[in-house]
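This is your field. Please look over both lines of this record.
***
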Amino acid sequence: MQKNIFIILVTLLFINCKQMTVAQSQVESVNDSALEKTKVSEVADIINFLASDELGGRDTGSEGLEKAAQFIENEFKKYGVVPYFDTYRDDFDVKGVKTYNVVGYLKGTDEKLAKETIILGAHFDHIGTAKEVNGDTIANGANDNAAGSCAVISLAKQFAQLKNNKRSILFVLFGAEEVGLQGSIHLAEVLKKKNINLYTMVNFEMIGVPLNDKPYKAYITGYNMSNMAKKMNEYSGQELIGYLPKAEEFQLFRRSDNYPFFQQFNVPCQTISTFDFTNYEYYHHVDDEASEMNFEFMATFINECVPVITKIANTTDKEIKLTK
């Protein structure tokens, strides 16, 4: 009798271990496939549209910005990323001009952690026109910031298909950044009034070309204000994020859409960028074109961010913390 019970227990243990191994391999397979989901061709398609002459530089209140918003909304719909508000639009006015943020939402899968929110953001507006060069006046804004917008759109697709984010995620494309961070100021105030439990905000700004002679792939603003860079490197298993002295010198932490969320919520809210003041000369210039972007680098970098965001969305505790 005891021998039979032992055999049964061993058999059950073997079955359970095998099931766990299969389940684990399935998860690893899903995660591995996710790292390949953002293709170079997909990055090229998004940038080529958002930075096209057809959109006229995506100025606040323009027809081009409206076309960009419709494009983003259609992408979210295809992926199953739902509107956070009644629609994808978060409307506001800038000096009498009506404009908007585009906000998509994936609810967390964990009953408790879903009450905590992560924001992945980038501004999708630009300045419209700039100084004429060879008859061209359209400031296409490929690096600034169709590139960052592409990262948010691509990450929305991956996480919508994975469906493994325990925390809730907002995918936000901000309007009116170029006229004083007006979109992020507005949304931060709205979300503060809604009393959301914001864990962290990761903003993407100008990631279209690789850094010059750096051991890391991108830098983070406000590097010493939190352990975000350290945790991102830990989560990615490589030196993905580093410190750029010029980011501190030029106070970039205060100059992008992360800052209003830091002001409202006092949690880690920081911007990731690869513009290091030496690797791209077309800031607010008509030659900030899609043809200047390194699509291969962008696709690789976006995919390398997936395990980082996955970890941020799934840790039991809020591991990313302010340090000062």
